[in-house]
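During the no-cost extension, the postdoctoral fellow (Dr. R.K.) reprocessed legacy sequence entries with the updated structure-token encoder. One reprocessed record is reproduced below for audit purposes.
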Amino acid sequence: MTTRTALLIILALVVPLGPAQADGEVAALHSAWRGCLHRNFGLQSALTGRTLAADAALRSCRESESAYLTALAASPLVDGEDVARVRPALLQRARGWLLGRGASPTL
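Re-encoded structure tokens follow.
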């Protein structure tokens, strides 16, 4: 994989996706995944510690995460292997956003 390809993958996965930046389906799936994380973290953090709540939210939202990453892998910029390679970094960013509760998550 070239440096340019790696940069495109990272940008595709960490820059917030919006209508002008991604196909509508990918953007909708990304939004659904973030919404799932937000809801599940809110519920879990009321019952347990924030770290456990973040981990539980990531586990609970695997289906929406998978749908988002599958759609992303179908894009012309990246393939399934590229997405699989950067998935751990994406999950770390999501976990950090949940724990930090940043105003503008860049997942």
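Residues 14-21 have pLDDT under 50 and may be disordered. Residues 24-47 form the longest helix (24 residues). The remaining legacy entries will be reprocessed before the final report is submitted.
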